[in-house]
Amino acid sequence: YIVAHELEFKKIHNLLTLLKICSAHNPALNQILEDCTLLNSYYIDTRYPVHWPTNHTREVTEQARAAVRRIAGVIKGFLPKSPC
């Protein structure tokens, strides 16, 4: 979304910061805030572990996968249509 709409951004992995950039351009993207918050916490846990290993259950993993699918669906819906 950021690249497609030529928005300025920093090279970071924080989904909440990236969402803030996107939602400033299109406030409708705030609908994925909860999912981004969920996924952002997993990235921080695995990238910067305080207590290793982080034990994610199958249920938690499925919730994360569902969040990814919802985010992808919303973002794809706001991308410009390809002329091809």
TrEMBL record:
<feature type="domain" description="HEPN">
    <location>
        <begin position="1"/>
        <end position="71"/>
    </location>
</feature>
<dbReference type="Pfam" id="PF05168">
    <property type="entry name" value="HEPN"/>
</dbReference>
<protein>
    <submittedName>
        <fullName>HEPN domain-containing protein</fullName>
    </submittedName>
</protein>
<dbReference type="InterPro" id="IPR007842">
    <property type="entry name" value="HEPN_dom"/>
</dbReference>
